[in-house]
Amino acid sequence: MSGVRIANVGKAFPKEDGTVTQALEGVNLEIGDTEFICLVGPSGCGKTTLLRIIAGLETATTGSVTVDDRAVTGPDPKRGMVFQEYSLFPWRRVIDNVAFGLEMKGVPREERWRTADHYLDMVGLSQFRDAYPFELSGGMRQRVAIARALANDPDVLLMDEPFGALDAQTRNRMQKELLFLWEQTKKTIVFVTHSVDEAVYLSDRIIVLSPRPGSVQEIIVIPWSRPRDRTSAEFAEVRRKVLRMIDESENAQ
What we know:
The model has no long low-confidence stretch (mean pLDDT 92). The N and C termini lie far apart (39 Å). The radius of gyration is 18 Å and the shape is globular. Strand 7 (156-160), helix 6 and strand 8 form a beta-alpha-beta unit. It is α/β, with parallel strands linked by helices. It is built from eight helices and ten strands.
């Protein structure tokens, strides 16, 4: 089980003048096991901060986060993180980048390479196992980062704008590949994006956060099966609804 429960989470950042910036306030959310959730909202609303709190990379000022009924008190391999910047080690081969987390756990080399090869095959990069990151395209580097996160067999996969730096065509292809991986692994995924189109295409539910301090403004259930038709009237209507909601909340500030 890998359900996530966020209870009354707030986050304040102290400033040099002694005041604080309230990034999040009163965030309440339950994410089901194997669910694919997208977080959207105005810039600066705390999407990444909330993701980092779930990851254990930030500590909530108030409230709590639990995963499988266990309190999040710090980073844990059971919560894998994929960043926008790829975060690969340029001096390591692809196979060694993917196996890095297992190496840190003390897994023997042959065993960690077998695991890494499995996930490289899953993301379609087996033939690049001995390449270095500089030899790969942006989309390929991000697939390596996803394989590295999956190699640790996390219960929850946390993704912070992972396709934001890619061109539109590569981004669409990566979205399809991510859905394929999700169908294969059935991980719980929490995915931060600025693209409403991406959120409607990927998620089971879209969580719309309010402007800072961020809180849950609206939860929109996406009722359709996958794959989804971006050109359909239903898709366009949900996209318009979410965009309108974000625009209205920004204008109300």
